[in-house]
Amino acid sequence: MGRLIAPPLSVALVGSTSTGKSTLGNALLGRYLLPCGVQATTHRIINVAQSVTCGHAQIEGRNGWKSWATDTECRDEMKRALSNSAPVVRVKAALATSRYEWWRRHPVVGWRRGFARLGRLTYFSDDFLLVDSPGVAHAGDRAGLEAISEVVRNSTVALLVLSAGETDSQKEAQIVSACFRGLAGKPGRVVVVMNKMDVFDRDEASDATRANILASRQKVVTELAQRAGLGETDVPVVPMIASAAFCAEVMPWSGTTLDAADQAFLRTGVADACRLLIPQDTDALPRRVDDWSASQLKNALCALRRASGLVEILRQLANTAFAPAARGRPASNSSASRWPDER
């Protein structure tokens, strides 16, 4: 039986250092696979390919593919691999059940995409590839800016992750321009993710500040897009709190994939994010997530996905997947996006 669905969907995460690219990547995967932290952690390109054939996450090494029993072990090995000289770290993983179900029920996707191959429910078929790229450390980082253009050029859609608290406007403008250069003559698409919106308090003054920041960033992005020959509507700017989305997506399904420390970290993250973003829904609940009922947890996580901006990001990805330009995009031969045929 051949593939019911083509084409491959390649999603690239690009931007400055420490803007939350890997955190957002984990939220999209539904697994805590990508190393992330306060400091820059991604020093090489990481390719994570969807695979319905491997039970555990696998990393390609010198002696072939090696499986890891838990995502915690896989992530630790990935950190070691990032310190080596290999330009690309390749990973295969079956995405979490939550991700399958989310896409199946998604109001934009629904069943229109089919999501079936040999009777199995999959995420954009077996041909989903997440590319997590190193960030640009400073303005004038020519190698980093050229790498962004290359990654975007060979991806179906690029999520350009910016920080709401960024103070180096020159570096940010260079990153946005490099991203748009990667689209030159290509049918791909860029979605700007304005991450770390939780740096502002939840009050009227902060709401006005957030609105002003989004408006000013949208103006800059639009001007740079027009210089690159893109239309104004081609580049949406989506506010995001990736850390909240990450906890909401990974925590419910982490029992068999993460160690006890990671599970406790995620439970605390969910509780803190709920009280920050959706206090009206969770203030009356017990303080510990472990004391919530199944229905309370489900409702809180659904509200948290919306409040964190994840629902809008998924909608943008779905729209891109259905776009004629994305369907007609040829497969890339770039080392950043190329993937061996495992089937």
Describe this structure in words.
The protein is an alpha/beta fold and 343 residues long. The chain has one domain: P-loop containing nucleotide triphosphate hydrolases (Rossmann fold). It is 41% helix and 15% strand. The protein is built from twelve helices and eleven strands. A nine-stranded mixed sheet has the order 4-3-5-2-8-1-9-10-11, with helices on both faces. The chain has a two-stranded antiparallel ribbon with strand order 6-7. A hairpin with a 2-residue loop joins β3 and β4. The longest helix has 24 residues.
Q: What number of domains? A: 1
The N- and C-terminal alpha carbons lie at a distance of: 12 Å
Largest sheet: 9 strands, mixed
- Range of strand content: 15-25%
CATH topology: Rossmann fold
Under CATH, the homologous superfamily reads: P-loop containing nucleotide triphosphate hydrolases
Using the CA coordinates, give the radius of gyration.
Answer: 19 Å
CATH hierarchy, class? Alpha Beta
Helices, by number, come to 12
Report mean pLDDT, rounded to a whole number: 77
Based on CA inertia axes, which overall geometry fits?
globular
Fraction of helical residues: 40-55%
Helix vs. strand class: alpha/beta
